[in-house]
């Protein structure tokens, strides 16, 4: 967990430091926050996608077994 946050901070700091205008601390903070948000959102999105696929498959199977009700 901490490794992805640290890696996000390093990448954010490097990207922010490329413009050379100010310190890289704000880029590190944004990078760490982004890594944390992504770490939370990816499992949620994956779970939603799998759930949707299962429901779609069950609906298709139901239509094949009982016939399509229009």
How many E strands? 0
CA distance, first residue to last residue: 49 Å
Q: What's the helical proportion of residues?
A: over 70%
Question: What number of structural domains do the residues give?
Answer: 1
Structural class comes to mainly alpha
List segments where confidence is low: pLDDT < 50 over at least 5 consecutive residues: none
Mean pLDDT: 82
Structure description:
The protein has about 70 residues and is mainly alpha-helical. The chain has one domain. About 85% of the residues lie in helices and about 0% in strands. The protein contains two helices and no strands. It has helices spanning about 1-15, 25-65. The longest helix has about 40 residues, at about 25-65. The model has no long low-confidence stretch (mean pLDDT about 80). Keywords: Membrane, Transmembrane, Transmembrane helix.
Give the arrangement of secondary structure elements.
Elements (H helix, E strand, L loop, with lengths): L1 H16 L7 H42 L4
Summary, kept brief:
The protein has 70 residues and is mainly α. Helices cover 83% and strands 0% of the residues.
Main attributes of the structure:
mainly alpha; 0% strand; 2 helices; 70 residues; rod-shaped
């Amino acid at each position: 967990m901490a490794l992805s946050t640290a890696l996000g901070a390093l990448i954010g700091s490097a990207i922010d430091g490329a413009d050379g205008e100010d310190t890289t601390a704000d880029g590190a903070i944004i990078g760490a926050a982004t890594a944390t948000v992504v770490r939370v959102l990816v499992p949620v999105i994956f779970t939603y996608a799998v759930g949707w696929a299962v429901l779609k498959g069950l609906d298709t199977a139901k239509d094949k077994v009982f016939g399509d009700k229009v």
